[in-house]
Specification:
Number of strands: 10
Structural class: alpha+beta
Radius of gyration: 22 Å
Strand content: 25-35%
Shape: globular
Order of helices and strands: EEHHEEEHEEHEHEE
Amino acid sequence: MLHTLILRLQGPVQTWGTAGSQFDYTRTEHRPTKSAVIGLVANAMGRVRDDDISDLAGCLFSVRADIPGTVATDYRTAGGGSFPADMKTWAEAPRGYQVDDLNRISSYGAPTTSNNFSYAGKSRTTVLRHRELIMGAGYCVGLTGPAELIDVIEKACEVPARPVFLGAKACPPSHPLVHQRFMSDEHVSWARTLDRLDGAVVTAPFTWREEPSSEAVMFNELPVSTVNGGKRGVLLRQYTVDPTTHVETPVVLT
């Protein structure tokens, strides 16, 4: 028997990376992605990166944007200036580095992958990053799957094994994740019947709904790797979406 669990993803800041995000400019989708939500749930369950997540990826996914929020760009830098010289620094730094009166190596820059993160002078430069963030948004996310699996997901989201975040560690949720549980398959209907979130700014919110199909193709919602190799995309099962609720063409509820 299939049940539907509704998660409330709301907080001051969220970010849901896109497949086109690489290198020094990270863009965000305008709603939570399935791969990101599956990662959030897996983290709440205490799973690690190499664990099988095919059971979670098998859940049907849907989103309703009660509070769409506003996209802003965060400007960041890494490296530049000076930094304290510790024993590891001195062991790896080339000879001749100058220090100031506070024993800090001058002309510090962030390492690059081209020199295996060593302290070679010219290869260390200030790295500039831009990251898109969604400010003040609130979404309802539906996961529909076997009742036994939904039980486990619900308990994990109520008492997570590890802290959970809305797309990045700097984006904690402002409300409990578990919002409502339907003891039946409400994948198609919940977005029309569930009450809007408190503070909803729209009466006819955009919605997205996954519709499986044997004719679909495999794809990644996130890039397989990024410049630092620290993020891996989740390869989702084959699926497509109904033309009336296309994942990139949201539908307004009436």
